[in-house]
Amino acid sequence: MHTASDVTQLIGNTPLLHLKQVSEKTGCTILGKAEFLNPGGSVKDRTALGIIRAAQASGELQPGGRIVEGTAGNTGIGLTLLANAMGYTSTVVMPLTQSKEKIDTLELLGADLRLVGATSYSDPNHYTHTAEKLAKKFAQREEHGAIWARQFDNLANMDIHCRTTGEEIWAQTEGKVDGFICAAGTGGTIAGVSVALKEHNPGIAIGLADPAGAALYEYVRSGELTPSEGSSIMEGIGINHITDNFAHAQVDVAFRISDEEALPYIFDLLKHEGLCLGGSAGINIAGAVRLAEHLGPGHTIVTILCDYGNRYQSKLFNPVFLENKGLPIPEWLVI
Fold first, then answer.
1. Residue 279 contacts by C-beta under 8 Å, 6 or more apart in sequence?
2. Which residues have a catalytic role annotated?
3. Partners of 171 in the β-ladder
4. Low-confidence ranges of the chain (pLDDT < 70)
5. What is the model's pLDDT at position 295?
6. Alpha-carbon dihedral angle through residues 205, 183, 82, 100, given to the nearest 10 degrees
7. What sign has the CA pseudo-torsion 77, 78, 81, 84?
């Protein structure tokens, strides 16, 4: 019999999905890695598994120990599911600004959820720094100890994407991939995939899709960490500092993607191709279109379809919220 022995074996090996409309629009083959099919519903399940396996191997994470992380939500969901399955406990620190659906999911899964105010990374009360402080407290007082997952700077993040996501893309395209593009949250995905693909073929173009208000677009272009104009409602992507993971990314070209540009791709994908995906997938698909236009027709481009859209229903598919932000509203939700 072919069976999975536990939930960890359900992570990865996600299919590549042909995105019909944008492929026809650009004359390229644009493929989306269906990371929403992971058991926790997002690409961050890979990150969570990589961090846990590395901590186990080093002896840092002891049986019965606690895993503490600051997250926009999806890594926390992945860590909590794996903690439940592998005999650990989890504490998740998340900004109050994240979607109600992710908050509800973490509570459902039994995470020790700590909600904090949204603030800049330079602020000592930023959710990442709060998680680090909590991890140190738990490590001192809990019988089985605690670790801080530190997904932004823990290279186990990019390593698992190099070993799995990148290698899967190369195998699934039979080496015929010409470009890869995605946004950066921790930088683990774009770093790991870029390293893996470039090892196979240095000529593969790696693109960064950066939302408005983030600084990596300008960093790739000029080396300056200057936030672009505007802001974005997209969660979990768009940063203004160089993480240890992103420092390893081999990026050739960057595109600044506004919410106004990205959201119609999400709405069209739902209406015409039957997929309800989150906002980061919209940024990524818009980036894939830009990269296709940059490379020209006839190329094969891969991007990441990060998570399901129902995780953001109260924002992305809320006509009142979208109208108040001056953003496009899908026609079937127009009041």
1. 233, 234, 235, 259, 262, 263, 266, 312, 315, 316
2. 44
3. none
4. none
5. 98
6. -160
7. negative
